[in-house]
Fold:
Amino acid sequence: MENADQSQRNTMTEALGNSLLAESDVAQVQEIIIKTGALDEVEKLITTLTQESISALRQSPIDEKIRAVLEEMSVIATQRSV
Structure:
């Protein structure tokens, strides 16, 4: 949470691992994740790593059918609505 201010960091620290969070606490944590840009950073990282893995698959000497299934699985596992 390098972009979070001290108050946001305190909120996140208190929330992590706390099984008794209220819905309002969860909403506050979600807001911090979005406002600090953490969500966007993680989504970009997922996209980059997925592209790199597909590129590596396409260069590997494995059966074409297996490669196609692995590519499809990587897309299914990483593309979701946020």
Remarks:
- Residues 6-36 form one domain.
